[in-house]
Write a structure and sequence with these properties.
Length: 240
C-alpha cells in the first residue's frame, strides 16, 4: 500500500476509534505531509467569514509563526488558496514578493523559509481550510509530489470533518465555523465582536482595524486582542 494510503487508513481508523475528539488526528496529517513531501513543516488552519482563521495544528514553530503572521496581516498564500480554490506554489520566495501578499513575503524573510506550497482543503464543495507547507531550501514540487500533496489535502478534509473540541463540533457537515474549545484566536474573535458593537462596524472592517492597529504598533494581533478583552486598551479613540 502506498504511504499516502497508509496515512488515509490511519486517519480513518483514528476517527472510527473516537480520535476525532482531539486535534491529533489533524496532527497525523501534518506529520505525514512532512514525511511524504520535500517540505520541512506543515499546518492546517480553518477559515470562516470575515477572514477569521484558527490554527488547528502546526508541525513545528516555523509553521506556527507563518500561520500566525498570515492571520495577523490578513494576507498570504492561505488567503489566496482559499479564495482561488487552487494550490499556491512559490518555489523561491526570494525571487520576488508575490503581488497578492508583499507584506507577508517581506515578514516571512525573517524565518528559514525559501519556498511555500499551500493547498485549499474542501469538505464537499465548501473550502473550509488550508494545508500550508514550507521548505527551507528553494525548489519546486514534482508532478508526483504535487499529486501526493493534493491527496494529503483531501485527507486533511477527512480529518477535519470528524474534528471536535470540548464536545462541540468545530466544523459541521457543510463546513460552517463552529466555536470549539481551546481555540488559539478566541480573544481575537471576542475583541472583533467588541469593536463591532462599540463602533457599529461590519465584522470585516472591525478585524481590519485590529490588524492595522497591531501592525502600526509593531505588536501581534493576539496581544492587542488580549488587551482589548482585558480592558487595557481603549476602544473609543484608538480604533476610530
Amino acid at each position: 500500500m502506498a504511504e499516502v494510503e497508509v496515512l488515509r487508513t490511519s486517519v480513518l481508523a483514528a476517527l472510527g476509534e473516537g480520535g476525532g475528539e482531539g486535534v491529533d488526528v489533524v496532527g497525523r496529517v501534518c506529520r505525514g505531509c512532512v514525511r511524504l513531501l520535500p517540505v520541512d513543516g506543515a499546518a492546517v488552519s480553518v477559515m470562516a467569514d470575515a477572514g477569521r482563521r484558527e490554527i488547528v495544528y502546526a508541525s513545528d514553530p516555523v509553521s506556527t509563526a507563518l500561520a500566525e503572521l498570515q492571520f495577523s496581516l490578513g494576507e498570504g498564500p492561505c488567503f489566496e488558496a482559499s479564495a482561488a480554490g487552487g494550490p499556491v506554489l512559490v518555489p523561491e520566495l526570494a525571487a520576488g514578493s508575490p503581488a497578492a501578499w508583499p507584506v507577508f513575503a517581506a515578514e516571512a524573510a525573517a524565518y528559514p523559509v525559501a519556498a511555500l506550497f499551500t493547498f485549499p482543503v474542501q469538505i464537499g464543495a465548501v473550502r473550509v481550510a488550508t494545508l500550508d507547507t514550507y521548505r527551507s531550501t528553494p525548489g519546486s514540487l514534482g508532478t508526483a509530489e504535487l499529486a501526493t500533496a493534493l491527496q494529503v489535502a483531501d485527507i486533511a478534509a477527512l480529518a477535519l470533518s470528524g474534528l471536535s473540541g470540548g464536545g462541540e463540533r468545530w466544523l459541521d457537515g457543510d463546513g460552517r465555523w463552529m466555536d470549539g474549545a481551546g481555540m488559539r484566536h478566541r480573544e481575537v474573535h471576542q475583541a472583533t465582536g467588541m469593536l463591532i458593537a462599540h463602533l457599529d462596524l461590519p465584522a470585516s472592517a472591525a478585524l481590519a482595524r485590529l490588524r492595522a492597529y497591531a501592525f502600526g504598533h509593531g505588536r501581534s494581533l493576539l496581544e492587542v486582542a488580549g488587551d482589548i478583552v482585558a480592558g487595557r486598551l481603549r476602544l473609543d479613540e484608538e480604533f476610530r
